[in-house]
């Protein structure tokens, strides 16, 4: 017994020594990055990834961050501030310069594979390690969670988030009878004729929720279309992004949309949000998939209220206010 105890202590000591001496990870570009210690002062210039730090419970290590889809003086800002009182001092609009980054004395910067390659090179020259991410697909999200879990020493929490995603998508798939025709879905953004392309995460969410994105095969990012194209698609359901001013009433009351199946049946819905918008590729989007599945297949046995309360309690330490829960369930 003493030998076993000694062995366990030795393994623990050596593991701690390894972290103290540094470790190496591979980011989502394939770059090997050496970190001298588990980071304690982090800057995130990729507004999607900033939200992951909250789901992983390491937001206290963030000293400067870009937050996609978040603005001051909104209910979402106020709610996030309850779990991060330092939010006003760390939220940054736009992208910080190298000088502004150096002023915060970070030991790690998290950036975008698409936008931050030059920034990463500049920071490497002054000895600041940078990890680049591409979390724009389901696999990219899971990869980002795994990587961040290792970087911050919270592998267990990252694994639980990934398991939640896998379990819910499997449950949805198993609950939809085989052979049924899946609803055709159109996802619109800040304008009714501004639609998510087939390559965007929103289209992947639709497919995982048991629908068929009418824009599959359309490349790129947000695309502008005309009403004639929407009539040709004739979606059964229309989802609206939770940001922007477009409402279901705007589409339901527009005569140009009157002959579209989703409008005739009244199946036009705006996604909810709690902290981040539920349609962007962050852990909160896992609930967005559940929400979509229930709109597309109302007979599913999932309980969104139970799922949301459990999810925010476990991963964000947040007890959802009743009015927020009511908005989700509308």
Structure, described:
By secondary structure, the protein is of the alpha/beta class. It has 2 domains: 142 residues, Rossmann fold, CATH 3.40.50; 152 residues, Rossmann fold. The protein contains 15 helices and 12 strands. The strands form 4 sheets. The protein has a 4-stranded parallel sheet with strand order 4-3-5-6, with helices on both faces. Helix 8 runs parallel beside helix 13. The chain is globular and about 65 Å long. It starts with a helix and ends with a helix. The N terminus is likely disordered.
Write the layout of secondary structure elements.
Blueprint: H1 2-21, E1 23-26, E2 32-35, E3 42-44, H2 47-55, E4 62-65, H3 75-83, H4 87-90, H5 98-103, E5 108-112, H6 117-125, E6 130-133, H7 138-152, H8 155-175, E7 184-188, E8 194-196, H9 201-208, E9 212-213, E10 222-224, H10 227-233, E11 237-240, H11 248-252, H12 261-264, E12 268-270, H13 285-296, H14 304-316, H15 322-329
Parallel strand pairs: 3-4, 3-5, 5-6, 7-9, 7-11, 11-12
Antiparallel strand pairs: 1-2, 8-10
Helix pairs in contact: 7-8, 8-13, 13-14
Task: Point out poorly predicted stretches.
Answer: 1-19
Number of helices, where a helix is a run of at least 4 consecutive DSSP H or I residues: 15
Structural class: alpha/beta
Q: How many domains, as an integer? A: 2
Q: Mean of the pLDDT scores?
A: 93
- CATH C-level of the largest domain: Alpha Beta
Report the sheet with the most strands, covering strand number, pairing sense and barrel closure. Answer: 4 strands, parallel
Oligomer: single chain
Q: How many β-strand runs?
A: 12
Globular, elongated, flat, extended or rod-shaped: what is the shape?
globular
Rg over C-alpha atoms, rounded to the nearest angstrom: 22 Å
Task: Report strand order across the widest sheet.
Answer: 4-3-5-6
Instruction: Give me the CATH architecture of the largest domain, please.
Output: 3-Layer(aba) Sandwich
- Terminus-to-terminus distance: 58 Å
């Amino acid at each position: 017994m003493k030998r076993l105890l000694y062995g366990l202590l030795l393994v623990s000591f050596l593991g701690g020594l390894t972290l103290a001496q540094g470790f190496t990870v591979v980011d989502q570009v394939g770059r090997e990055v050496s970190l001298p210690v588990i980071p304690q002062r982090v800057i995130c210039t990729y507004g999607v990834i900033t939200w992951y730090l909250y789901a992983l419970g390491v937001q206290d290590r963030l000293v400067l961050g870009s937050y996609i889809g978040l603005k001051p003086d909104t209910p979402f800002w106020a709610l996030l501030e309850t779990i991060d009182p330092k939010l006003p001092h760390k939220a940054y609009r736009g992208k910080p310069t190298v000088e502004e980054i150096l002023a915060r004395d970070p030991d790690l910067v998290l950036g975008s594979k698409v936008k931050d390659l030059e920034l990463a090179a500049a920071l490497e020259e002054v000895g600041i390690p940078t990890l680049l991410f591409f979390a724009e697909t389901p696999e990219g999200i899971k990869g980002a969670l795994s990587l961040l879990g290792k970087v911050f020493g919270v592998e267990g929490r990252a694994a639980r988030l990934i398991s939640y995603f896998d379990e819910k998508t499997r449950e949805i798939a198993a609950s939809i009878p085989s052979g049924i025709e899946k609803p055709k879905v159109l996802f619109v953004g800040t304008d009714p004729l501004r639609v998510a392309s087939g390559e965007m995460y929103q289209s992947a969410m639709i497919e995982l929720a048991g629908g068929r994105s009418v824009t599959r095969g359309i490349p790129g990012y947000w695309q502008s279309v005309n009403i004639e194209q929407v009539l040709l698609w004739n979606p059964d359901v229309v989802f609206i992004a939770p940001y922007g001013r477009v409402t279901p009433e705007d589409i339901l009351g527009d005569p140009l949309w009157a002959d579209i199946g989703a409008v005739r049946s009244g199946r036009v819905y705006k996604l909810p949000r709690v902290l981040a918008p539920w349609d962007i590729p962050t852990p909160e989007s896992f609930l967005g998939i559940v929400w979509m599945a229930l709109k597309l297949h109302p007979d599913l046995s999932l309980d969104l209220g139970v799922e949301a309360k459990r999810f925010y309690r476990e991963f964000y330490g947040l007890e959802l206010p009743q009015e927020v829960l009511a908005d989700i369930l509308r």
